[in-house]
Amino acid sequence: MTTVLLVRHGLTATTGHVLTGWTPGIPLDDRGQAQAAALAARLAPLPLDAIVSSPLERCQQTAAAIAATRDGQQVITEDRVGECRYGDWTGQPLKKLVREQLWRVVQSHPSAVTFPGPGGESMPDMQHRAVAAVRDWNARLGKDATYLICSHGDVIKAIVADSLGLHLDQCQRIQADPCSLTVIRYTPLRPFLVRMNDRGGGVDDLMPRADGHARDRGTAQSDAAVGGGSGGADPGEPANGRAGMMNGASSIPAGAAATSGRPPADTRG
User: Fold this and answer.
1) How many CA within 13 A on the CB side of residue 22?
2) Residue 193: predicted pLDDT
3) Which among 239, 128, 231, 248 is positioned nearest to 181, based on CA atoms?
4) What pairs with residue 224 in β-bridges?
5) Which DSSP helix (H) or strand (E) runs through 41?
6) Which helix (H) or strand (E) holds 195?
7) pLDDT greater than 60 at residue 237
8) Which SS3 state, helix, strand or coil, does residue 198 take?
9) Distance (Å, rounded) from C-alpha 7 to C-alpha 268?
């Protein structure tokens, strides 16, 4: 099975205040640099077959911090995991955008949204290109691969929704905080959402197993853990049968939606 680590970029000076979109020259601030360094240290024990990043500076810097701990491993730029193209909304303060009629559509019916103005992208088109990029990288790197994609909040939420078989309209139930880690394992039958919005867990459960969790063992790797499984505590359990809590992060099989007890989702880039 192919394991994909989805990392949102760290904080910038505009995160949560301005819809930055594809605005150039928005680097990580001191907080974001510290977040990236902490995540890099947390992921350091985990071998990565590739580090893929959005072309935008805040993602490139986050990915570079992770690559810096890996003896010269290079960051590969992938435009398809770049931020949603927000058109005329780009660079606008969120407190202004929240008064727009389109804001409520973004919140409740994102599959109907095309952002206004030249270059404005539809949210379904954004999801399509991002999911296609993940599938292409899965095929390129192979079924034994573990790799990382550094991207943006709305993009990660759209990929997670796809992995769970959710309609895009449900993506606003998903949270992707700055420098959070989301992990999806893709098997021949279904994806498994192993972690979502993890901001502090270890990586022991993501390491290649001595019994070769990535080797093809028929349909077993695609089977859900009936009854919930042991969270990986039983060495004889199929590697994907890790439902429950792992290092403080939830494991969610495809087809089950997760909700946070936080306020309604915003479009925050």
Assistant:
1) 16
2) 97
3) 248
4) none
5) helix 30-43
6) strand 191-198
7) no
8) strand
9) 15
Residue 134: phi, psi to the nearest 5? -60, -45
* Closest among 40, 116, 129 to 82, alpha carbons compared: 129
pLDDT one-digit tens code per residue, 41-64: 999 999 999 999 999 999 999 999
Q: What tokens were used for 87?
A: 């058109």
Look at the alpha carbons of 17, 19, 22, 24 in this order and tell me if their dihedral is positive or negative.
negative
pLDDT per residue as tens digits for the range 163-205: 999 999 999 999 999 999 999 999 999 999 999 999 987 888 7
Q: Are strands 244-246 and 146-151 parallel, antiparallel or unpaired?
A: unpaired
- Whether residue 142 contacts residue 127, with contact meaning beta carbons closer than 8 Å, is answered with no
Which two three-digit tokens encode residue 201?
């867990």
Q: Which residue shows structure tokens 């270059």?
A: 119
CB 55 within 8 A of CB 153: no
Tokens of 207: 């390491």
pLDDT at 250: 40
